[in-house]
Amino acid sequence: MEFSRADVILAAIGVYFVACLAVGVWAYGRTKSASDFFMAGRSLGVFVTCCAVFSSTMSGFGFVGGPGLVYSLGMSSMWIVGSASIGFSFSFFLLSKRLRLIGELRDSVSLPDVIAARYGSEATRALAAIAIILGVVGYLGAQISAMATVLGDIFKTHPSLPEIPLEVSMAISCTVLVFYCATGGILAGVWTDMLQGAVMVVAALLVFATALGSVEGGLGGISAILEADDPESISPWGTLGMVGCLSWFFVFAVGGAGQPHVITKIMMTRNVRDAKSILPLSIAAYGITALLWLGVGLAMRALVVSGAHGPLESADQAAPQFLQSYAHPLLAGLVFAGLFAAIMSTADSFLNIGAAAFIHDLPHAILGRPLRRELFWARIATVLLVVVAALFALYTDELIALLGAFGWGTFAAALVPTVAIGFNWKRATALAANTAIISSLLINFSIQVAGIRLPYGFDQGALALLVSMTLFFGISLLSRPPRLDADIEAVMDL
What is the pLDDT of residue 229? Predict the structure, then answer.
């Protein structure tokens, strides 16, 4: 029985892999320019954009890292889930109109393009590009680590396959990612998002029901087991505590408006008015898929505590172990396949914005023009970013969800003042934006590299965001009001 179960799971993953690679080949034939590679030709409809927005936010961060975070910290991570939905609202209400219109007016192919147009500063473009590249390394590292962890666990539990080291499973994952992302660009990612997004909404409901049924007494039984073991784990603050949870709430709610993998999707829509439909659909889909995050994490913790399942080597194994041991093999195969698709499409989003920053925005800021043969160099940059992110993930001893939180915090602290506030406040200056970006990167990376743990579990991204916002407002108010270009001022007046 175990042999057939493992084979069904592996076959489902294999079929889905082939489908995703076929999407990459299909998108390759339709990617003729840098605009197609980075912006999908601004041709996305409501349903495709909705799936792209919520899928790229959930991804391996939520499907693997989320249950691992619940397993290790209890209910603490629910403050991430709830606040991320609020972050969607901030993104769309603050940026959907102005960002989309400025992008179209200036024929922008990246977020730093639009930032440079707003502030009239190439220095701000360059700093935004650097922040995006550094944030991509952290967040992409979480995706690669999630993919490698799941792949390694599948090999480990299959009776006919040899156990492979993490380095090997990471190399396999990176090879698939490079082919998929370098060929199809963002077009491959958003269409894969649509496919796996629809699948995961249904699968998340089925997995949640399976999780409740895996422990006698359902949710009540799970709660009783966890309360007897550690009452704090199922308290509103979990084991992280109130200060840590509120810092997560702040950085994931307010910081949602600074996530380039979300807000660049706004620039790709076919029509500005589509945002009114995309927002509620994205929040609903994200909320449903988050049930997998909660259900699997709580159920697996209860199963291990009660002795029904052996201890996990790592909290990040909670999701793959649960699916392989307790879910129907067809459902497990479907979820694993959808998970890999989510990781690949999300990785594609990050690689896309990172490659744009590297080969479009930095040369534009330094040389005053983009590189020749941009599409060719975008694909080369994609390969380099995969290698750097994989090494970062391999040699950083962090849970997948915490790697993702670091990337999220890096983006939030650098881009929320610059974009979310700056695109809604004429008084904001280029000097303020530059200072906010530099201060946020110094704080985030100093804390990360030094291995500092802030007191009471306070999130480093939240600290960096508080500092960058304070500096942004203060410097703008103390500076001379900027002079905006006529077309940018007209959009700001809308």
Answer: 93
